[in-house]
Amino acid sequence: MRAVVVERFGVVPEVREVGRPGVPVGGVVVRVQATGLCRSDWHGWQGHDSDIVLPHVPGHELAGTIAEVGDGVTGWQVGDRVTTPFICACGTCEQCLAGNHQVCPNQLQPGFNYWGSFAEYVAVPFAEVNLVRLPDELEFETAAGLGCRFATSFRAVRQVGKVVAGEDVVVFGCGGVGLSAVMIAAALDARVIAVDTNPGALELARAYGAAATVQAGPRAVEEIRELTGGGAQVTMDALGSNEIVQQALLALRPRGRHLQVGLLPAGVQLDVSRLIGQELEWLGSHGMAAHAYPEMLELVASGVLKPADLIARTISLDEVPAALDALTAGTPAGVTVIRP
């Protein structure tokens, strides 16, 4: 099969022929029909993830059809249209049995623990707890983004942050995760304020339901506090930045909730005294389990949520190395989808 192969961290990868993945016991091999290009892939390529062993194939947002079914798998067959969370849970540990697949200590992640979906085929382990059946009317390009950015934002906003109608929600960073969060929070009738450096991203945020936008910079917190009459109920770091975290906490009103979704490979400094004195909540959110997808898929089917609108460009496998390298200069507006 053809795949994007990283030989050295930070060095632009190449597209070349490699062996197809074997089908794991209890798992399947998926023929990749679409896969998303995410900032997490850039972090992995830069060497920020200790699980990655070179040579490596990135890619963790995927949708496609089952090409092979491993021993022990029931309920799935070749040709089924599927997607999967980027966190593939084992299904048998204490956390999985409690329904918390997204924090499974035995998890495997395509594109990180093993070769991912920037390829024509990818393996999915523990198929019976990780595969999500796709409705026939849902396009593969749209479904690919549900595996990471959209599902991650849905769980963060809806299930972890428990955003309700009328709340002020500030989203810092309007890449794929941030724009998904804007759309989801707006659909919940929250008043969304989007913050980014990119005017194009802010324009998209307004199109997806943001009531106001703020240019990122030293006056961002002041503007947010003015817009919200003293601070927001909820802030979200959708990018992953120490500077954003500080601004997000300052933009909260007392007893506000901060959602941390963006990765922080360099760590972060927290004003713990402010957290205590203002009774602020710091809430981490990491993906979404396969069993939690039905609510999101129903909202997509009904037209309340429109993840297809987030797709700004579709590229080929041969264009991935340059597109990955371009993320070094910043995240472009909208979602990029790859058709292998």
UniProtKB/TrEMBL annotation:
<keyword id="KW-0479">Metal-binding</keyword>
<dbReference type="InterPro" id="IPR050129">
    <property type="entry name" value="Zn_alcohol_dh"/>
</dbReference>
<protein>
    <submittedName>
        <fullName>Alcohol dehydrogenase GroES domain protein</fullName>
    </submittedName>
</protein>
<dbReference type="InterPro" id="IPR011032">
    <property type="entry name" value="GroES-like_sf"/>
</dbReference>
<comment type="similarity">
    <text>Belongs to the zinc-containing alcohol dehydrogenase family.</text>
</comment>
<dbReference type="InterPro" id="IPR036291">
    <property type="entry name" value="NAD(P)-bd_dom_sf"/>
</dbReference>
<dbReference type="InterPro" id="IPR002328">
    <property type="entry name" value="ADH_Zn_CS"/>
</dbReference>
<dbReference type="Pfam" id="PF08240">
    <property type="entry name" value="ADH_N"/>
</dbReference>
<dbReference type="GO" id="GO:0008270">
    <property type="term" value="F:zinc ion binding"/>
</dbReference>
<dbReference type="InterPro" id="IPR013154">
    <property type="entry name" value="ADH-like_N"/>
</dbReference>
<dbReference type="InterPro" id="IPR020843">
    <property type="entry name" value="ER"/>
</dbReference>
<dbReference type="Pfam" id="PF00107">
    <property type="entry name" value="ADH_zinc_N"/>
</dbReference>
<dbReference type="InterPro" id="IPR013149">
    <property type="entry name" value="ADH-like_C"/>
</dbReference>
<keyword id="KW-0862">Zinc</keyword>
<feature type="domain" description="Enoyl reductase (ER)">
    <location>
        <begin position="10"/>
        <end position="338"/>
    </location>
</feature>
<keyword id="KW-0560">Oxidoreductase</keyword>
<dbReference type="GO" id="GO:0016491">
    <property type="term" value="F:oxidoreductase activity"/>
</dbReference>
